[in-house]
Design goal:
Elements lengths: L9 H4 L8 H14 L10 H15 L1 H20 L4 E5 L6 E5 L39 H10 L1 E4 L9 E3 L6 E3 L21 E5 L6 E4 L6 H4 L13 H5 L1 H10 L1
Antiparallel strand pairs: 1-2, 3-6, 4-5, 6-7
Helix pairs in contact: 2-3
Length: 252
């Protein structure tokens, strides 16, 4: 039994051309469900949403789409031999199917049940912004300026809340703060200071910000590349203070 109905024009359901690429089909499915609010959670009809998902399932599968195209053409040919080819177009408003002769201008066609227009112009999806989010960790103004300048900044929380779960970056031990206020100076398990210090890093190439518990003197040792754009020379401090780091390494 076929996994589709060749009498239903899935291309018209998704408002795409029969030769549309997969990216166009995927975008049309998302726009109709979200932007045009066809999803049941947004007030759309459940039966029409199921039809949208069925059309997307068939047309997004290369093998299934090829079978459907052949069956759709064969169904249209048989109908034409019986006295005129028709296409079944579901209404995007009430979900009822309306049979129409092939070649009908759907921009002027109306639903036989509710009288609404059968063709809905789907606006193109808005391109996702590739601009990096800045100050992800909500640093102070002076701290964030230093982070932008040096690409790295060591931070240590000065306040903890009561019943907050704390973790040592050295031994990984977890414990719960008994009261709000300043945290312990040393880890109660490994007796090491600076257990709650972390480093905020910012790529100077793509602007990506991330947090690290590794605090070696040379950031490239811990993070050879930016985890977002894979740039090798992402750290401003390492690039501008290379000689200072080498001198410090010799003195150790």
């Amino acid at each position: 039994m076929p996994e589709y109905d060749p009498q239903v024009d899935y291309y018209e359901v998704l408002q795409v051309h029969p030769r549309a690429r997969l990216a166009v089909i995927r975008a049309a499915h998302r726009v109709i469900l979200r932007e045009l609010r066809a999803h049941p959670d947004l007030g759309g009809r459940e039966d029409f949403a199921k039809l949208l998902n069925e059309a997307y399932r068939v047309l997004s599968d290369r093998g299934l789409r090829a079978e459907y195209d052949g069956a759709r053409l064969l169904a249209a040919t048989r109908t034409k031999d019986r006295g005129g080819a028709v296409q079944v177009v579901p209404c995007p408003h009430c979900g009822e199917a309306t049979p129409l002769p092939l070649g009908t201008d759907l921009r002027r066609a109306q639903c036989s049940s509710c009288g609404a227009a059968l063709h809905v112009e789907a606006s193109a999806p808005k391109p996702e912004s590739k601009e990096p989010r800045e100050n992800v960790f909500r640093l102070g103004r002076d701290e964030y300026e230093r982070l932008r300048r040096d690409s790295q900044l060591d931070c240590r929380p000065e306040q903890v809340s009561a019943a907050e779960t704390l973790r040592c970056r050295f031994c990984g031990n977890d414990w719960v703060a008994k009261s709000a206020g300043r945290p312990l100076r040393i880890c109660p398990t490994c007796d090491r200071g600076g257990w709650h210090t972390f480093r905020v890093l910012k790529c100077r190439v793509c602007g990506h910000e991330w947090r690290s518990s590794r605090l070696s003197g040379w950031a490239y040792r811990d993070h050879p590349r930016c985890p977002n754009c894979a740039a090798a020379r992402w750290n401003s401090y390492c690039e501008s203070h290379l000689l200072s780091w080498l001198v410090g390494l010799v003195r150790r």
